[in-house]
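Researcher: Sequence of AAA+ ATPase domain-containing protein follows. Predict its structure.
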Amino acid sequence: MKTSIEIGTDSTGQGVHINVQELLATRLLVQGNSGSGKSHLLRRILEESAALVQQIVIDPEGDFVTLADAYSHVVINGGDYNEREIAAMGARIREHRASIVLSLESLDIEAQMTCAAAFLNALFDAPREHWFPALVVVDEAQMFAPSVAGDVSDTVRRASLSAMTNLMCRGRKRGLAGAIATQRLAKLAKNVAAEASNFLMGRTFLDIDMARAADLLGMERRQAEAIRDLERGHFLGLGPAISRRPLSVRIGATQTSTRMGTHGLMPLPSAGGEDMRSILFTEMEAPAQPRFFAPEPEPVAASEVLERIAASEGLHEDLDAPPVLDILEAVEEAEQSDAVVIAMLEEMLSDPESAFQPEAYLYQDFSVRCRMQKLKKVPLDLAAFRRRFALAKGGVFDPSEPRWREMLAVADRLPHDMFAPFLQIARAAMDGEPCPDDDILGRAYGSRSPGRIRRLVEYMEKQGVIVVRADFGGRRSIGIPELGLSTEAE
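Model: Prediction complete. Tokens:
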């Protein structure tokens, strides 16, 4: 089987190849200033290897959605789905080996990081039998693995950085090969960048970035000036999948392009000053329609996207569909196991220290209890267990009950580790009880630090999920605007 793809030519006109098999084992880092051709390089690699390996693209700007026009990629618009649905898609993608593009362009930076973290964690937590090889491309990786804290909350930054670290540091054994691109190495977390063994360095101007790029390429500092002189679309490549010595690569052409195309000069409008003023300020009877772009497609239901992912499995292998009776038996077994899950969660939470235990330890305990109950398999994977345990700490053991529906819809706007304290507040508001004190919220959050609980409440208030009120006596009450409820003052 062919395992090598051509990405361009060297200074002598000879083809430069990447060994995809070796790339899956050694990972790739692409660096270059804006306009250096990073996205074009990633697109060339994706197009050339589309028939060789499953591809998963984290696309913050929507640049790669056009791959679906020429290849079998399924486009997922992250803004149309909640965190639970995104995680479910991630698990299904690994099972069916579908090539996808996760477009995050409709989200703000914090929502992009949250969505990407949930998606990458689902890929990483897939069961062992689904550890098929996959090339995971992350464009603008400095957004998802920042080297320093920025404007986003610490909780979101830590979750995103952890997911990226798992991808680059521990993903290889699970079949996940990271190929990440960044505008600046100085903005990318070092423990993420350090795990790549293959490098393609494009044009950069800042001394600190040139120095780091030269170090990665094994060049002397005085040779780093060559990186500043690279033309658009030219990169210096090094690594076991590319070359044992640094070589210059001119990236070849691609079959697809971005929806926007390449920006260039164009004639200015011919309308004069008064005509332009009339165009800009005259009231229109109806809003103007976009002139250059097609209307945005309607959001696709999560179930339909999952069906498309499942259908794409036929591109890789032929499997017989399970009989209807098997499906019905599986549904009945799932209903029985859910009752066992609820009983085990109640038993685990009867230990006051369980709220402060690491999730990995709790999941191991949960798995042992499942075997003691003689279940055929553990009914929840790690991602699903995280959510169910967080809900249980908040007093919601059966999330399918109708009375929790609105409350859980509000909770889904928060990271999963905040579900429990929020649900404690929401349940108190529903029952007309006093606001939970910091000790109760601390046990739900898994922290004994009063400062962390204070920051937790402040974060939820900034997200618009709760409103905190304090009277002159210092008694606190918390309202939940979307539910129209409020706790009693405490």
